[in-house]
Amino acid sequence: MTPPLTDQPFELKELEEKLDQLIEQYYAVKNENHALKTKQQELVQEKVQLLEKTALARTRVEAMITRLKAMEHDS
Which one, of 70, 31, 14, 18, lies nearest residue 39 by Cα? Predict the structure, then answer.
């Protein structure tokens, strides 16, 4: 059943408003997704740097322990 002709402009306006809202939501989600992807890339890079620093620190500590043990055996 089709609505009377007088209701069609009102329904069309409602549809236009809903479409505008959906378009706004789409762009908001798209922008948020882009921001999240950028943040994820930054965090991955930060993790790599932290892992490298941790490995370097571990190597240095192990070297110090080895030197201390060598000094202990020399005494």
Answer: 31
Q: What is the residue-level pLDDT of the chain in tens, covering all 75 positions?
A: 555 555 678 899 999 999 999 999 999 999 999 999 999 999 999 999 999 999 999 999 999 999 999 999 987
Regarding pTM above 0.70, the answer is no
Dihedral sign from CA coordinates of 26, 29, 32, 34:
negative
Rounded to whole angstroms, the Cα distance separating 25 from 29 reads 6
Tokens of residue 19, six digits: 């479409």
User: Environment class of residue 47 by beta-carbon count within 10 Å: exposed (0-12), middle (13-18) or buried (19+)?
Assistant: exposed
CB count within 10 Å of CB 61 equals: 10
